């Protein structure tokens, strides 16, 4: 977000201390609410007639100074009451269509010098625990890492007593610049589309040295010196994998030698099961990457490739320009910092869903399904052996996943319409719209929430305006069962016809003939390029699929 002014996101920065200078910095890049002073942030939020609500920010940042919020009372019991009261009032003001970032706490003040040892950490901990609980309850609330910003600078550099006494400006000039940069970075993450897969070399990448030479020259992987640098890299990669980054191996090596290290080396953090795909052979790496993309059913633009060899990186850049190929550091101690930057640039997400945490297991199961298909006597036998089960979910419980599906799915997406958080919130409250969200599982595991259909019932005939399904469940006739479930539901509500829209794009050709295959007939155009199809609900065609429909998830609050 350096350079030109960024458009499309409206921000608000509210605080109980003076943040006017930070707001001025932000306004050079984005549209920002002109706050009415400071110290009344909750009143502004709770007043529906305030200029804040008239402005209508997409993202609101709340940067509270904990000492001011506590009114300089360091008694833990009193602090707990004030913190609980603050969050209770904020909860009343939350709007589901907006995103909120609340700063974690850094307690500072002259009186701390005479306070009990540990009081500072204890009071910060009260805020932190309450904030984490709040984020678990509200999917549109995130934590802004303000504490880390202050720690990185140090108190003497982060705060300015002179500016505080002059105008209640708590932060130094440098800290204000960094807070501005942090806020803009969060905006970038909120609006970005992250990559899905990180492909890694092995020798001199995940460990030092060569796998095939470890009998004579031990692999560099340990708890000291350069070996610790490689181990810390792996520790970081494991945390990335837990947050939904799929890891893969693309290595020119003897597979037996490499797997022995992966399985048995005492300092190996990433064991074989941490990787969703592995290609350890002497095939050119760009060919292996293509094969992994087919195996995982992902586009090449979902991949990032990291290798210590400049020649291998250059070949992949030339042969697979859709794949991102970051530079590799010169020294082992730079490995983890370089990977942290790769994570920030390509993979960081604003919110981690349960589906994200299950990604590696889901894609490993995807490979197992492919192997089952290879040994099954027929396609029908394969589908029968999968034991597919589908459950309709309450979309209000899974707003973040619903947003992900609508905004990041391209291949199985009949209209490729994108939605803002505000539009999704309106959609879920619209009595004339039906949002059908589905979880899919089978004998190999839970695929997670992977499909959504939206029916607009405001006209004479309901219209499926959106039909989105994750690419990892394509090709199993699951879509037949989902459409039939929607048809049955609408028929039970008194409708006798249903229409579906298809708007062709560069990526959704695989679903171009879907409605015809399901028995719908073309009845007209949908916009300039789209096609409108229709079916009578009194008697729909018999469709053969092996999918078991399970009981619906209860609605929120029931």
Structure description:
- With 558 residues, the protein is of the alpha/beta class.
- The chain contains 22 helices and 17 strands.
- It has helices at residues 20-27, 41-46, 51-55, 66-69, 76-93, 119-137, 146-153, 155-158, 161-167, 173-191, 225-242, 255-264, 285-296, 310-319, 335-347, 354-357, 359-375, 379-386, 399-408, 421-429, 478-492, 514-517; strands spanning 10-15, 31-32, 59-63, 99-103, 141-144, 197-200, 246-252, 275-281, 303-306, 388-393, 433-442, 445-456, 463-469, 497-502, 521-526, 530-536, 547-550.
- The strands form 3 sheets. Strands 15-16-14-13-12-11-10-17 form an 8-stranded mixed sheet, sandwiched between helices. Strands 2-1-3-4-5 form a 5-stranded parallel sheet, with helices on both faces.
- The protein is globular, with a radius of gyration of 27 Å.
For the structure shown, list the relevant keywords.
alpha/beta, five-stranded parallel sheet, 22 helices
What's this model, at a glance?
41% of the residues lie in helices and 18% in strands. The protein has helices spanning 20-27, 41-46, 51-55, 66-69, 76-93, 119-137, 146-153, 155-158, 161-167, 173-191, 225-242, 255-264, 285-296, 310-319, 335-347, 354-357, 359-375, 379-386, 399-408, 421-429, 478-492, 514-517, and strands spanning 10-15, 31-32, 59-63, 99-103, 141-144, 197-200, 246-252, 275-281, 303-306, 388-393, 433-442, 445-456, 463-469, 497-502, 521-526, 530-536, 547-550.
